[in-house]
Design goal:
Low-confidence stretches: none
Oligomer: single chain
Number of strands: 15
Helix content: 10-25%
Strand content: 15-25%
Shape: globular
Strand order of the largest sheet: 1-3-6-9-12-14-15
CATH topology of the largest domain: UDP N-Acetylglucosamine Acyltransferase, domain 1
């Protein structure tokens, strides 16, 4: 019998009797952190894991839907960058009683917004550096340091994180990029789950071809 009670993206604790897994979106207070529905964090107080996030930069952390973020993951924002075109990188200007005014933003390295796609799995204790763009469906190994853009449906790991392999063949990746299942309604996703979690990828490919024209 079909379950008519749909999952609630605004439930902070979506796993019964467990208070260490949270849907991130309903916990966010910072207007420059934008998180999609059903993305979860295997810890509490997600915002404390977004560091060097200073208003004068006005950079954003944008995370898609259905992402899986393990405990200990840190997002380092542009405020961590120091001026690099001079002989000392020490930021005298942020400390009291030093004779230096703050440099203009043009003199500070700025990598832009950090953007994480949909259905991305970020392994435990990984670090995401400023301005990184991570594609849909990426898997990131534990304790990785991600400092460059990552193509959709890649598996990466290491410090610095490097491509291990593509998750699927090019044809299936192209189908998944077009499918964008995370943008479907919850009811449609529920019906699609048997395909999304089928390990026979040739069968999956043929079934999804019927959906993606």
């Amino acid at each position: 019998m079909e379950n008519n009670i749909l999952p609630d993206p605004n439930a902070i604790f979506p796993v019964p009797n467990i208070k260490t897994v949270v849907y991130i979106k309903p916990t966010i207070k910072n207007k420059n952190i934008i998180v999609g529905d059903f993305t979860y964090f295997s810890d509490i107080d997600f915002e404390s894991h977004v560091t060097h996030f200073y208003e004068f930069y006005n950079d954003k952390l944008i995370i898609g839907k259905f992402c899986q973020i393990a405990a200990g993951v840190e997002f380092i924002m542009n405020g961590a960058n120091h001026q690099m075109d001079c002989v000392s990188t020490f930021p005298f200007y942020i400390f009291e009683k030093w004779n230096e005014n703050a440099p203009s933003l043009e003199k500070l390295p700025f990598k832009g917004d950090t953007i994480i796609g949909n259905d991305v799995w970020i392994g435990q204790n990984s670090i995401i550096l400023p301005g990184v763009k991570i594609g849909d469906g990426v898997m990131i190994g534990a304790q990785s340091v991600v400092g460059s853009n990552i193509e959709p449906y890649s598996i990466i790991a290491g410090n610095p994180a490097k491509l291990i392999r593509k998750r699927f063949d090019d044809e299936l990746i192209e189908i998944m990029v077009k499918l964008k299942w995370w943008d479907l309604s919850v009811k449609e996703i529920n019906k699609l789950i048997p395909i999304l979690h089928n390990s026979n990828l040739e069968y999956v490919k043929e079934e999804l071809k019927k959906i993606v024209k």
